[in-house]
Amino acid sequence: MQLGMVGLGRMGGNMARRLMMGGHEVIAYARNPAALEPLSREGATGTTTLDDLVATLRAPRVAWVMVPAGAATEQVVMDLAARMEPGDTIVDGGNSFYKDDVRRMKMLRDMGLHYVDVGTSGGVWGLDRGYCLMIGGDTAVVERLDPIFRTLAPGIGPIPAAPGREAATGTAERGYLHCGPSGAGHFVKMVHNGIEYGLMQAYAEGFDIMKNATSADLPEDLRYHLNLADIAELWRRGSVVGSWLLDLTAQALAENPTLSRYTGFVQDSGEGRWTIMAAIEEGVPADVLSAALYVRFRSRQAHTFAEKVLSAMREKFGGHIEPPAGG
């Protein structure tokens, strides 16, 4: 298939590469010609204006938007919509708020355009590992885009089906899923990121407890000088707390056991807040996820080793770099 890619950052650029590796034709957009050069050398057609992007795409057009959620996404969607024709599709693959998806879908529908929201997980590793895709939108449109989703997703790979799902023939086993109508994809991705906050916080607190096992407040015979890098590596092998997040933590500790290059300033990108808002609206207790979000707020005031662990994990899985000291 042919697809236009708007946003060539950490994820968008590699998604374009994965699509080209899968035989798709990518029309890439960036205002700065220099940003287009690497992808152009690899086979993409580069454009520096949205007019050129839309003119180069064949009808019915598909434009995938991969820019920061909020005002940037809103502007790009509006600019594309003004240039596209009935039957064309805009895909938002960023981390937009699901209620914004519903609003945009209705606006674009009135213009004869289609809108699909895709929660995308995979971070900077997605080029090789593939991307987990949580999709919302009209069934017919999602089915038409299936070749794109199938190429971006990890595929079946070595992971066995869960017991009871051995005969399943859906796409979940391949790493992508049509979750429901407009907004459903980003709603599921929002909760995914809320869970991520909780998992990361659990690891961070655990390693902080072990780091402080030498505390002078403890009896001398109960003080332990623990090698956290070794313990992280140990837990990767047969432990019930093994996970990709633990793999990344082990890597960070192996590189720098004290995590001295991290201050522990931990950003939140919005999805954690939205998850708690949804929990409040639904009347669902979310104690752990709420606490994990509040710890990120606290991290911007005073830093513990736990927050350094969080910073290390965020950099490893998503390339998220701490802001300079002072925030």
Task: Based on the model shown, name its key terms.
327 residues; alpha/beta; single chain; Rossmann fold; 14 helices; N-(1-d-carboxylethyl)-l-norvaline Dehydrogenase, domain 2; eight-stranded mixed beta sheet; 2 domains
In short:
Helix content is 48%, strand content 12%.
In words, what does this structure look like?
- The chain has two domains: 2-181, NAD(P)-binding Rossmann-like Domain (Rossmann fold, 3-Layer(aba) Sandwich); 189-318, N-(1-d-carboxylethyl)-l-norvaline Dehydrogenase, domain 2.
- Helix content is 48%, strand content 12%.
- The protein is an alpha/beta fold.
- It has helices at residues 12-21, 33-41, 50-56, 71-83, 98-110, 126-129, 139-144, 146-152, 184-211, 228-235, 244-255, 271-282, 287-299, 305-318; strands at residues 2-6, 25-29, 45-47, 62-65, 89-92, 114-121, 132-136, 176-180.
- Helix 11 (244-255) packs across helix 14.
- The relative contact order is 0.10.
Number of helices: 14
Number of domains: 2
CATH fold call of the largest domain: Rossmann fold
Question: Which range best describes the helical content: under 10%, 10-25%, 25-40%, 40-55%, 55-70% or over 70%?
Answer: 40-55%
Largest sheet: 8 strands, mixed
Mean pLDDT: 95
CATH class of the largest domain: Alpha Beta
Quaternary structure type: single chain
The CATH architecture term of the largest domain is 3-Layer(aba) Sandwich
- Using the alpha-carbon principal axes, give the shape: elongated
